[in-house]
Amino acid sequence: MTVCLLLLSAVALTAAVPAPRALCRAAWPEREPVVALWVWQCLVATVLLCCLAALVLGAAAVFHAVRAQVFAPAPQAVTEAYDLSAARGWAAVLTPLLACGAAWTGAMLVRELVEERRRRGQARAHLRERAPDLPAGLPAEPGPLLVLEDEYPDARWFPGHPSRLIVTTGALRRLSAHQLDAVLAHERGHARAHHDWLLHLSTALATGFPRVPLFAHFRDQTHRLVELAADDTASRRCGHLTTALALIELNQHRGVLSCDSSRRLLGERVDRLLEPPPRLGRRHRALTTALAALVPLLPLLITFAPGLTALS
């Protein structure tokens, strides 16, 4: 039991502190933003699984009722292999801390979802006010593409049910047909990949645990990488130059293509489109994805190792 808790703590600390810093210094995430997003998610899942496994083992050591539920279907040899009584003192201190952390994480996720629902409600009300009146005989609810009268060029994806692509008349006047296709492909890339949920998760974790390097880097890198991934989607469909010109045209007056862009990120995105970095080979992408997927299995392996050893 003590060895399991020590190993879980070591894996969680490694994934939470040095691993994200090394990933931020690496150059390959700019070339493969989709793979990089997967690696970040695997690191976050590893830390959360370590905390959850330690919470369950600690609660089983401290509370007999929890122990009876967790080890009810297991043979007596498995229960003895964990030696729960040996780590009861340490578990009595660790378990309340982990329980508070789990409750706080849940509260931050709920808070983020409630805030996002409120923001969407306000945005939908604003859109209903600005949406043009449709002629009689047409459906009252607009389709997936909504054009708004506005002199500023802008295009963005509005998530929800149903999701919509919103384009202003200023964007229609400024962009060519191919550039408009690139912008719409960019926003559809966000919609198909459900980037909004990833952004909510990273924001909630970073807000709840601002001193944990992993969660802070996860939020910052997620906001950056989802834009790069959507740019790649647009450039594959419409070309790198067309996508770069569309970004420039939309951001001449204000540095916004989507709600999470900034002027610094915009310059990086344009430079990346004009001079595309070399991509990883198919074998390297598959290997990186597979290795990242194995990392969250470490907490499970550590947790179940004593029981599997006892059974064998």
Notes on the structure:
With 312 residues, the protein is mainly α. 73% of the residues lie in helices and 4% in strands. It contains 15 helices and three strands. The protein has helices at residues 2-16, 18-25, 28-31, 33-62, 64-70, 76-82, 88-130, 169-174, 177-193, 195-208, 213-238, 240-250, 263-274, 282-294, 297-311, and strands at 145-148, 155-158, 164-168. Strands 1-3-2 form a three-stranded mixed sheet, with helices on both faces. Helix 4 crosses helix 5 (64-70), helix 10 runs antiparallel to helix 11 (213-238) and helix 11 (213-238) crosses helix 12. The protein is elongated, with a radius of gyration of 24 Å. The two termini are 18 Å apart.
Largest sheet: 3 strands, mixed
User: What is the rounded Rg?
Assistant: 24 Å
Strand percentage lies at under 5%
Q: Please give the share of residues in helix.
A: over 70%
H/E series:
HHHHHHHEEEHHHHHHHH
Oligomer: single chain
Distance between the termini: 18 Å
Strand arrangement within the widest β-sheet reads 1-3-2
Q: Could you tell me the number of beta strands? A: 3
Class derived from helix and strand content: mainly alpha
Q: What best-fitting shape do the alpha-carbon axes yield?
A: elongated
What low-confidence regions span 5 or more consecutive residues with pLDDT below 50?
134-141, 255-261
Mean pLDDT: 84
Helices and strands, with pairings:
Blueprint: H1 2-16, H2 18-25, H3 28-31, H4 33-62, H5 64-70, H6 76-82, H7 88-130, E1 145-148, E2 155-158, E3 164-168, H8 169-174, H9 177-193, H10 195-208, H11 213-238, H12 240-250, H13 263-274, H14 282-294, H15 297-311
Helix pairs in contact: 1-4, 1-15, 2-11, 4-5, 4-7, 4-11, 4-14, 4-15, 6-15, 7-10, 9-11, 9-12, 10-11, 11-12, 12-13
